[in-house]
Hints:
This protein is α/β, with parallel strands linked by helices.
Amino acid sequence: xxxxxxxxxxxxxxxxxxxxTTFNPARPTEAVGSYxxxxxxxxxxxxxxxxxxxxxxxxxTAVERSSALERFxxxxxxxxxxLAKSITLEQGKPLSESRAxxxxxxAEARFMAGExxxxxxxxxxxxxxxxxxxxxxxxxxVIAAITPWNFPILTxxxxxxxxxxxxxAVILKPSELTPSTACMLxxxxxxxxxxxxxxxxxxxxxxxxxxxxxxxxxxxxFTGSVxxxxxxxxxxxxxxxxxxxxxxxxxxxxVNDTHDLEGCLDQIVTAACMCAGQRCTAISRVIxxxxxxxxxxxxxxxxxxxxxLGDGMDSATTIGPLINARQLDRVSGLVAGGIQEGxxxxxxxxxxxxxxxxxxxxxxxxxxxxxxxxxxVAREEIFGPVISILRYANxxxxxxxxxxxxxxxxSALFSDNNDVIQRFIDESENGMIHVxxxxxxxxxxxFGGVKNSGVGAYSVGPSVVGFYTTEHAVYVKRT
Length: 479
Ligand code: ADP
């Protein structure tokens, strides 16, 4: 059993709020962790601790900050197996995916350790004689980081690493469904970073809400649902804190033409089914040219049928459970609604019963064909191993379907046609645009979305500097 309170100003303390428990979603009768929630007074103490630590840390040189982050990353790598296991036990994904998540989080953080050493300031021409003008960037201050349950290490690391390396203190509030991994990051920070620089506050939405509205918070970075993102945006407005919100997606791939249909389908399946489809970048819609409709439906159905549902700790498992009963209800409700509206479940379409794991939250990998672009399954984020197939006759229609949703996170096109490719790059209303491969992003590229998928600076890659630092125009006159 994992047991944690909150890490406040360098000390682990029992939370003064209530207790909560986490469960293994493959075996929900098994409790995995026991936690105590922080009280409002404890959150205030954490902000005071962060302000104190940041006042010192902001004077460290970029080289010192970068080396400190490298020490922290090495600490994470030392505990990689333990961290991966904690992800699978609370989140449910296959252990191989958890291991890859730990490795990716370290690779992204390592880019940040290098990025802090690059120039982010500018020398500008002066309007008046004897003047030197500069635009410089300085640490923002105390950052509140609120993270979801689908990537228990990747999302906290994506926020913690740039926060620290650009001279800030960070208070992390992990999801109450999967906090163990972030708590271990707190332990690693304890041995590698100055006291108070990284704090971990446990609790549910109420605790997150108190944290983001606390006085002293200069920036809020959040990954999660649109509804919670809106609530956080409103809280941020009260303190005029900077925000970076990474929200949902209704990502699509357009299959227009391809010389390698098998390879294309393999990539779609990976992008749709990793983390049981519970990724904000999961491919959820396949928009296919009508001539390719039959082979695409058949090829996807064959691959979805071949998946092995099971406990993520079992090496034979390719798709784990959904996170909880609420999510299972939501996915099965959306799929049932789609079928009622006229979609056809070519495979799957219902809750799965896995022998030996009868209480687990499993949903059958599902391919829906005959999906119309107005149906709810074609418009709402599903967050399950479900793919909807929509067909089109010409590229105008394809782009209409692609962009006809409220989200704008990621997108892919399979085509060797130069005109269609150029159009896709110009017209896809998404933060991320992939041509001839799935939606898996690189570790050093900006990551984020437009429309309902995000507001503020993208995370990952060089764009983060706009969020983690403040800008200052400096004028120096010769005397
Ligand atoms: P989901 O509904 O899928 O669990 P959320 O967006 O609600 O996703 O949760 C993501 C993170 O946001 C979690 O850490 C959660 O505790 C936190 N959270 C939920 N509500 C609020 C809120 N009003 N203010 C701040 N954080 C919140």
